[in-house]
Amino acid sequence: MGRLDQEGEAQYTSMEEEKAMASNETEIRHRGIRAMPFIIGNEMFEKLGTWGTSGNLVVYFTTVFNIKHVSAAILMNVFNGTTFISPLIGGFLADAYFGRYKTLGFASIASLV
Question: Region Disordered: which residues (predicted)?
Fold first, then answer.
């Protein structure tokens, strides 16, 4: 790469000079996201729990509450639709107001209850 000297003419530098100039600049350290495996595990088990519950919930609606099969299926579709829409709402709340970890913690506790 070249740079301009005081007269406006290009000066060419060697790779060693470029590395020396780059090392003088502020170094950005990427430490990684330590919480990411826990977030992925949490979401994975939450989805497994949701899908495991949905099949049993139809049977529960039809036997205990004596709801017709069509109405039970409609309730399950509403439940699943709410489950799939809630990350969009949570993402908006996390970005706009609360932050990602507070929102994820609250949503995890609410899902557990």
Answer: 1-26
* pTM for this predicted structure: 0.53
* Dihedral in degrees, nearest 10, Cα atoms 90, 93, 94, 96: 150
Of 73, 72, 104, 98, the residue nearest 86 (C-alpha): 104
Tell me if residue 25 falls in helix, strand or coil.
Answer: coil
pLDDT in tens, 60-91: 999 999 999 999 999 999 988 988 898 898 88
- Return the closest-CA partner of residue 88 out of 107, 63, 60: 107
- Domain locations in the chain as residue ranges: 36-112
The alpha carbon of 82 is separated from its chain's Cα centroid by a whole number of angstroms, namely 17
Strand partners, 12: 2
Question: For the chain, where are the alpha helices, taking DSSP H only?
Answer: 15-24, 36-63, 69-93, 100-112
